[in-house]
Inverse folding.
């Protein structure tokens, strides 16, 4: 599987357009879906930032990688484990599940902060390199052992996937299974660059939100 600046830019641009369509659909229909509808747009922005990072790495401009790297990792480390459970909570009709998903979002904020703040404050600790046509983000100071890294990834995946998989909304559950599949694929086959690869795969899958919005009945007026 090969990734590149061109792939990130094409995917990112397409998702920004898709995100505009999903957001219009959400605001014209059931506004509880607005947060979920924003996923393609935000994934698009993240992919464009990684496209810029690709260009600078290819050009050997290591000193100019900090800003696009921080934008990408802000989404990867902090934004997704907060936003995805929150999106599921906002469309959830059952109060108990809604509270559970909100707790997942809070847990995501804590985990995301623990992952992102050290990089934000000391970006020099992060090693970025191109490995087998993917960008590898390595932080040996935070994860000196593979076991700690695997545990953090498992908790991260659970925070994101569980609210989607337990949703009372059928189409959201389908999206959850797609995201879980991308996590498993990344774990099994591309773990050396899991952060970059999973975000790319999840970005592709976020286009499914357009179908979710199209199949969501509009509230009675």
């Amino acid at each position: 599987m090969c990734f590149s600046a061109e792939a990130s830019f094409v995917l990112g641009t397409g998702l920004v357009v898709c995100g505009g369509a999903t957001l219009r659909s959400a605001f014209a229909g059931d506004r509880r879906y607005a947060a979920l509808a924003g996923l393609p747009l935000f994934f698009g922005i993240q992919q464009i930032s990684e496209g810029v990072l690709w260009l600078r790495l290819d050009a050997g401009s290591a000193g100019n990688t900090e800003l696009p790297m921080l934008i990408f990792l802000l989404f990867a480390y902090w934004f997704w484990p907060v936003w995805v459970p929150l999106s599921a909570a906002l469309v959830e009709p059952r109060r108990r599940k809604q509270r559970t998903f909100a707790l997942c979002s809070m847990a995501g904020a804590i985990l995301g902060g623990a992952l992102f703040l050290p990089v934000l404050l000391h970006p020099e600790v992060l090693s970025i390199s191109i490995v087998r046509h993917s960008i590898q983000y390595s932080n040996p100071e935070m994860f000196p052992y593979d076991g700690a890294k695997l545990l953090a990834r498992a908790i991260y995946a659970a925070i994101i996937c569980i609210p989607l998989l337990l949703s009372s909304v059928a189409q959201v559950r389908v999206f959850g299974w797609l995201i879980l599949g991308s996590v498993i694929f990344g774990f099994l086959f591309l773990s050396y660059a899991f952060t970059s690869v999973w975000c790319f795969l999840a970005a592709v899958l976020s286009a499914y939100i357009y179908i979710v919005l199209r199949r969501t009945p509009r509230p009675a007026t």
